[in-house]
Amino acid sequence: MERFRDRVAVVTGAASGIGLALAERFAAEGMKVVMADIETAALDTAAAAVQAKASTVLAVRVDVSRAEDVERLARETYAAFGAAHLVCNNAGVAVIGAVHEHSLADWQWVMGVNLWGVIHGVRAFVPRMLAGGDEGHIVNTASMAGLTTAPFMSVYDVTKHGVVALSESMYKEFEATGAPIGVSVVCPGLIDTRIMRSSRNRPPELAEEGKPGPMAQAFGQGLADRLARGYAPSEVAEQVLRGIREKRFYVVPAQPEVRQWATVRAQDIIELRNPTSRR
Ligand SMILES: NC(=O)c1ccc[n+]([C@@H]2O[C@H](COP(=O)([O-])OP(=O)(O)OC[C@H]3O[C@@H](n4cnc5c(N)ncnc54)[C@H](O)[C@@H]3O)[C@@H](O)[C@H]2O)c1
User: Fold this and answer.
1) Containing H/E element for 103?
2) Cα–Cα distance, 267 to 270 (Å, whole number)
């Protein structure tokens, strides 16, 4: 996709962090922006801020883990603007803990938002975009956690590896069928957002059932400290925009030392060596 002005961008998780930065960046390009999020008050504030920069904004309260919500998002987008050209499946949440200690609710919540959210986004928008026949682009937010693994991050890692796999498959399918839709997967490293406070949006029916063990908690604290010193979300948005323009699939706004772990993992696989632990 090369022309952005007056075209329609949809961003989930747009009330905060990377999603908000994407919405701001697309608005700055003159796009109409649909901002979707579960957190109503934050969404209203974010939408007003983007709208103030002379952009056309539609804010929609959506829980991306619910297929009917994402279907409604697509219906409202097409009712308002008649098209969607750029769809960013970005909403995401995180939990920390050991694989065998996570509750079913942990798995259901994070799989629901991070993986099902992307699946619902693709199923709701891609058929409409193909029927419209215009050029377009799908951007799925995964993570470096989709290219590597870490202890105490299993639930999150599983969802992000799923997002990378889904995105790679879709890229190959669009290439094979000659569809006019580009695909990018975004794999950020450490970004200064509110992700470590994800539980603010955790639904009561999937409430936390206990605290992680001491090693997992220490890992979580260390990660929170590193994220606070991470890149600004605007850096991710800038790289996403460039990636779309350049038709690049892997968009990896990650610190060199974080990116290195994808190389280490690939080398583990190539050499059939056991997984290398980070020190
Ligand atoms: N922060 C990082 O270092 C980092 C690194 C790699 C990947 N990511 C990914 O970036 C994406 C954005 O996260 P962020 O870091 O900006 O965090 P954030 O918490 O600042 O923003 C996430 C947004 O998603 C929304 N959200 C949560 N559950 C939702 C649901 N069920 N339906 C709709 N919206 C929902 C939240 O309200 C919030 O506005 C996520 O997919 C995350 O996994 C973040």
Assistant:
1) none
2) 5
8-270: CATH class: alpha beta
Phi, psi of 13 (to 5 degrees): 70, 35
Whether 156 is a known active-site residue: answer: yes
Q: State the closest ligand 1 atom to the C-alpha of 230, by its place in the atom list counted from 1.
A: 3
Distance 273 CA to ligand 1 centre (A): 33
Q: Which DSSP category does 181 fall into?
A: E
Q: How far is the CA of 93 from the centre of ligand 1 (A)?
A: 5
For the chain of 279 residues, list the mean pLDDT of each consecutive stretch of 10: 95 98 97 98 98 91 98 98 98 98 98 99 98 98 98 98 99 98 98 98 96 95 98 98 98 97 97 91
| Secondary structure E strands in 129-208 | 136-141, 181-186
Question: Could you identify the atom of ligand 1 that is nearest to the CA of residue 46?
Answer: 39
Q: What separation in Å is there between the alpha carbon of 195 and the centre of ligand 1? A: 6
